[in-house]
Amino acid sequence: AKEASGPHLQFFNAGLQRRFAHQQALLSALRKAITEEALQVYYQPQYERVSGSNQITCMGYEALVRWHDDELGWISPGEFIPLAESEGLMRSVHKLVVKKVLADTPTLQTLNPEKPVRVAINVSASQFKHSKFVDDMNQQMKVAGVSGSAIELEITESLLIDDIEQTAKTMHELKESGITFALDDFGTGYASLGYLKELPLNRLKIDQSFVQDLTQDSNATAIVQTILALGRSLEIEVIAEGIETDEQLATLEKLGCSQFQGYYFSRPEPLHALRNAKETT
Ligand code: C2E
Ligand code: CA
Ligand code: CA
Ligand code: CA
């Protein structure tokens, strides 16, 4: 039996070893990218139907971190964010993203001068719970000379599960600086809906999985309808993300949704590629 498992075990070890070596290479490249401030930020426009008009206009942007390494190529946030989390690098990643967003905010404002600019930044739960989170944000905004009203933070339902009191306290502190909040991936977590009205939430983001299933799955339709009704009764705005087709857009509009984000409108782009986006549909 020992002989029989030999080659198998060896293969397994070689696979593990390769994975380990890859993770180590990724980690040291990530540390370097952070130190050199080489992580980039792309922006995906968010749109709004002005009621009764045939125009859909840009109402803000979501900042999404991007990483390109000369040897490793493009590495998706889905791959390096969990690594940054497990290696304690998330605070640095977050601060770097915030720094770049704040530096880009005046340019984003000039793309759409009629409206005060708003940029949404994703915040992981571990970051949001960090004791220095509020101080870091306020300090960075002060240094950059950008008001909190230009910033929306996208948080997830996991923050509403374990320590709701602390989460609410942190949100209210940040709200004093003018920062607003969106609840990301809404509908995929297990937050008790009762908490929603206790929190200073501006926006619910309907998770893209529901949008993608919308045209072939009646469950998804029911969930989207429920989220829109919830938003109306709590007076919280609702945005649908991950819209890829005109059919999805039409269905969402029929259900009463008026805020949109997705490849159908625009992919996340580097700052220089963005233009004053106005669509007529
Ligand atoms: P998320 O916050 O839910 O972001 C939406 C993701 O969907 C983004 O992927 C975006 O590029 C993608 N997306 C946008 N429109 C469409 C569409 O029409 N169809 C499809 N299939 N996808 C679409 P991305 O940029 O790869 O980011 C993945 C996740 O990584 C984000 O999910 C977020 O959880 C996290 N992330 C990204 N940037 C940051 C950051 O700066 N900080 C933190 N903490 N997390 C980030
Ligand atoms: Ca997000
Ligand atoms: Ca999302
Ligand atoms: Ca997501």
From TrEMBL:
It comes from the Bacteria. Residues 23-281 form the EAL domain. This is Signal protein. It comes from Idiomarina piscisalsi.
